[in-house]
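User: Earlier you gave me the apo prediction for this protein. Now I'd like the version with zinc ion bound, so I can compare the two side by side. Same sequence as before, with the ligand SMILES added.
Assistant: Got it. Here's the input I'm using:
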Amino acid sequence: MSDELPYIENEEGEFAVPCQIKIAEDCAQLGEFCETKEDARDWVEDECWICSGEGYFCVECNNQVLRNIGNLQTKKMN
Ligand SMILES: [Zn+2]
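And here is the structure of the complex with zinc ion:
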């Protein structure tokens, strides 16, 4: 599964995991660049990014998703 994940590679040949959804205004956009894909993945996991199965998204975006769900539920109640 890990090989399927999207990675961003920089000019130094380092890898970072991008945020998959980028919907939050304060979205982290990208994890830290690391020498290996595994290190890049460890970094986002240390930051508590959420794995969707196809990629990761940052905590800020996860919070935004939860807020959106909350808004929908509020609308239904009205
Ligand atoms: Zn994000």
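For your comparison, keep in mind: The longest strand covers residues 8-9.
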